[in-house]
């Protein structure tokens, strides 16, 4: 069966929410192109939505696309060299059989209606290590003409136009960085005279990429409220403590939602032990005494962590979540995708998944299917561009059902397994 009639109404509601989401005021990436980064030899995404989900067979490149955002964020937070060395340098990073630098190009708007800003970063390596071969920021101030670069650097030396609204006729100031492995946007984005550069630096350095594991959330950390969940979730008790002290209404919303998904759950709390550490405890009915988090189910802890990320009172401007279906009951996933969409009103979300239940909550413009072409490189195709998909959706079909029943023309692991292509 293609249709799940009981879900059609909810699905149509999701689909209509698109216009509401597009009216948000947070920065949005609209375009991404990556060259020579692992299997992404020449990879491109157009018309990226506030909620963007990547689907595909094992080995299709979902985690690599996810790591693009993690790598860029780490270049700004810990520096290019650490992010580079962590991933094995050119030996592991550059696409096999290819030469030249690794290139990232993204286009984004600071808010709806503002000019599109293009950021292009090329990274190369010599005997001394990685360096920024070139870095550019471009925009077009008017409605006509070509975009112009208001920041241009090569190997740590370049020029920038300062001010809140750079014009092509403005004078460019020459600047030199301390080292060619430093990013100009990261360095100059700390100076008040470069507000456009500041905005991009804050945007990228504030991305949150989740690598949650249930085991990590079971730890007993030192007491102390913390605003943001760590990438692994090992400070979950600290964030619960922060929400309890500073945003009790949000914590109550999180727990109310959690209790609707986890049978008999009544309360989650973080108590300070005598040795100054935090103990996360979970109480379920009808029992009077709570249990320690180390005895709670994986699914309960992961769902709690995801809800805390999605209900963040001051959310990151970009959130990445990898395979949220792990350890969660399939019936919970359509509602989780709904929560991701709600969160996408205040953040941009990038999600990887294998779950048709999660995909059932999406509209075709939000779903990209990844596959390997005949050369072994990752490509992407939006579900809305696949033959017949829009027509099926108009008749009430759900994307996840269409996928498992073989209606997608790419990404089926059992058809042309070497390429992911359907001829």
Structure notes:
With 423 residues, the protein is of the alpha+beta class. 31% of the residues lie in helices and 25% in strands. The chain has 14 helices and 17 strands. The chain has an 8-stranded antiparallel β-sheet. A 6-stranded mixed β-sheet has the order 10-14-15-3-16-17. A hairpin with a 5-residue loop joins strand 16 (367-372) and strand 17. Helix 2 packs antiparallel against helix 3 (80-86), helix 8 (236-246) packs across helix 9 (248-261) and helix 9 (248-261) crosses helix 10 (298-310). The longest helix is centred in the first third of the chain and has 17 residues, at 5-21. It is globular. The chain starts with a helix and ends in a 19-residue tail after the last helix. Residues 1-23 and 417-423 have low confidence and may be disordered.
Ends distance: 24 Å
Q: Average pLDDT, to the nearest integer? A: 87
Q: Strand percentage, roughly?
A: 25-35%
The largest sheet has its strands arranged as 2-1-4-5-6-7-8-9
Number of strands: 17
Category by helix and strand content: alpha+beta
Low-confidence stretches: 1-23, 417-423
Percentage of residues assigned to helices: 25-40%
- Number of helices, counting only DSSP H or I runs of 4 residues or more: 14
Major beta sheet summary: 8 strands, antiparallel
Overall morphology: globular
Assembly context of the chains:
single chain
Spatial extent as radius of gyration: 23 Å
């Amino acid at each position: 069966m293609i249709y799940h009639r009981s879900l059609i109404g909810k699905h149509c509601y999701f689909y209509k929410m698109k216009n509401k989401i597009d009216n948000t005021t947070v920065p949005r990436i609209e375009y991404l192109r990556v060259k020579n980064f692992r299997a992404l030899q020449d990879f491109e995404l157009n018309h990226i939505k506030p909620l963007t989900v990547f689907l595909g067979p094992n080995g299709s490149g979902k985690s690599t696309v996810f790591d693009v955002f993690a790598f860029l964020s780490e270049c700004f937070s810990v520096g290019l060299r650490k992010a580079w060395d962590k991933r094995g340098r050119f030996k592991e990073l550059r696409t096999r059989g290819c030469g030249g630098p690794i290139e990232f190009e993204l286009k984004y708007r600071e808010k709806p209606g503002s000019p599109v800003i293009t950021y292009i970063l090329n990274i190369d390596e010599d005997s001394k290590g990685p360096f920024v071969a070139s870095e550019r920021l471009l925009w077009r101030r008017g409605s006509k003409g070509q975009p112009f670069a208001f920041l241009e650097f090569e190997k740590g030396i370049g020029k920038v136009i300062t001010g809140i609204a750079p014009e092509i006729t403005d004078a460019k100031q020459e600047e030199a960085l301390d080292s060619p492995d430093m990013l100009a946007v990261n360095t100059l984005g700390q100076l008040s005279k470069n507000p456009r550069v500041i905005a991009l630096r804050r945007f990228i350095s504030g991305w949150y990429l989740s690598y949650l594991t249930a085991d990590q959330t079971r730890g007993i950390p030192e007491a102390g409220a913390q605003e943001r969940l760590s990438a692994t979730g090992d400070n979950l008790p600290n964030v619960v403590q922060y929400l309890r002290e500073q945003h009790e209404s949000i914590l109550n919303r999180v727990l109310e939602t959690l209790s609707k998904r986890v049978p008999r759950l009544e309360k989650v709390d973080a108590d300070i032990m005598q040795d100054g550490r935090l103990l996360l405890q979970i109480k379920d009915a009808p029992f009077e005494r709570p249990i320690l988090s180390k005895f709670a189910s994986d699914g309960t802890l992961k769902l709690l962590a995801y809800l805390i990320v999605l209900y963040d009172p001051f959310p990151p401007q970009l959130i990445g979540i990898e395979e949220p279906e792990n350890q969660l009951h399939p019936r919970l996933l359509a509602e989780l995708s709904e929560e991701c969409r709600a969160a996408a009103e205040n953040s941009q979300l990038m999600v990887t998944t294998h779950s048709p239940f999660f995909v059932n909550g999406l509209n075709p413009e939000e779903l990209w299917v990844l596959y390997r072409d005949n050369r072994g490189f990752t490509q992407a195709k939006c579900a809305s561009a696949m033959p017949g998909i829009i027509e099926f959706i108009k008749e009430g079909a759900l994307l996840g059902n269409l996928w498992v029943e073989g209606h997608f023309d790419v990404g089926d692991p059992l058809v042309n397994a070497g390429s992911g292509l359907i001829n």
